UniProtKB/TrEMBL annotation:
Residues 45-283 form the ABC transmembrane type-2 domain. It comes from Microbacterium sediminis. Keywords: Cell inner membrane, Cell membrane, Membrane, Transmembrane, Transmembrane helix, Transport. It is found in: Cell inner membrane; Cell membrane. Belongs to the ABC-2 integral membrane protein family. The lineage of its organism: Bacteria, Bacillati, Actinomycetota, Actinomycetes, Micrococcales. This is Transport permease protein. It comes from the Bacteria.
Length: 291
């Protein structure tokens, strides 16, 4: 009886998880192209909405929080401070939301053919990043008008902030994407997290206000939030260079123990990615049946 070498064959329905993205990158490019092409299909304004929607959101927060509630008090160049934080949080919210619904939105492909299911949430993250770029471009232009001077350290801080947001959104996204196929309640939990994320990070206020109201483990937990760390990296990259060093308005520089908070945020992102991948792998066995 002759034996057949099966080493070059894949076991149907199983793969190496996120690592398969490298092998199937041509499919990833197709999914990203599809996501970017269909977002504003049959829209008159098209990609202009990528500028209009964050602009209106910024304007509402700026007027309501900044002037009606005096949220700009004590923060120099409050428009840059506010928009830098909003850009980071908006990227997280869109990436997280898109990744959560990626499997359900592509049910036709999931039920008909096999391909690594992780490609769908990962492509959703990349599509969110593509739509994040116009907001980043606006932030760059406005920062330049306020006297911002780019530096290698500032650009590095920005890239690190983007990496943190993308990693956290991917980890949470694949976790809830797997659960959402069987239990659609997961999408409601995601909406709650997205709603809270804007207020759970120093976007509309300074972190010093949290320090005044909370201390000890509560403050450490708040500052270890990867989104909070990413927001502060964006503030340091774009807002901090526009503020005079001898200005009385606070805050200046990174919060105390920021290196520890950054390390904690990186560890949290790694753990969330691992837990998300394991959960996704467990639920993906029945994706076709549940859909």
């Amino acid at each position: 009886m002759t034996s057949v070498d099966l080493s070059e064959f894949d076991v149907p329905g199983r793969g190496r998880g996120i690592l398969d993205v490298i092998r199937w990158r041509y499919l990833l490019r197709l999914l990203v192209r599809k996501g970017t092409a269909t977002r504003y299909r049959n829209s008159v304004l098209g990609w202009t909405w990528s500028y209009v929607k964050p602009g209106i959101q910024f304007l509402m927060y700026f007027l309501v929080v900044g002037y009606i509630f005096n949220g700009n008090r004590g923060i120099a160049n409050f428009p840059i401070y506010l928009f830098a934080g909003l850009v980071a949080v908006n990227f997280f919210n869109e990436a997280f939301g898109n990744a959560t619904t990626a499997i359900v939105d592509n049910r036709a492909l999931v039920k008909k053919i096999y391909l690594p299911r992780e490609l769908f949430p990962i492509s959703a993250i990349i599509v969110a990043f593509v739509h994040f770029l116009p907001q980043l471009a606006i932030l760059l232009v406005v920062s330049l008008l306020y006297g911002w001077v780019p530096s290698f350290a500032g650009i590095g801080a920005m890239l690190l902030g983007i990496l943190l947001v993308a990693a956290l959104a991917l980890g949470l996204g694949i976790f809830f994407a797997g659960i959402n196929v069987r239990y659609r309640d997961a999408q409601n939990f995601v909406e709650i997290i997205r709603m809270v994320s804007t207020w759970a990070s120093p976007v509309l206020y300074a972190w010093t206000l949290v320090q005044e109201k909370a201390s000890g483990w509560i403050l450490h937990l708040y500052m270890s939030n990867p989104v909070t760390v990413a927001v502060e990296l964006f503030h340091w990259s774009f807002w901090e260079p526009t503020v005079s060093p001898d200005a009385e308005l606070q805050p200046h520089g990174f919060p105390p123990h920021f290196s520890l908070y950054l390390t904690a945020a990186l560890v949290i992102c790694a753990l969330v990615l691992i837990i998300g991948q394991l959960t996704f792998r467990r639920f993906e066995r029945s994706f076709a049946q549940d859909l």
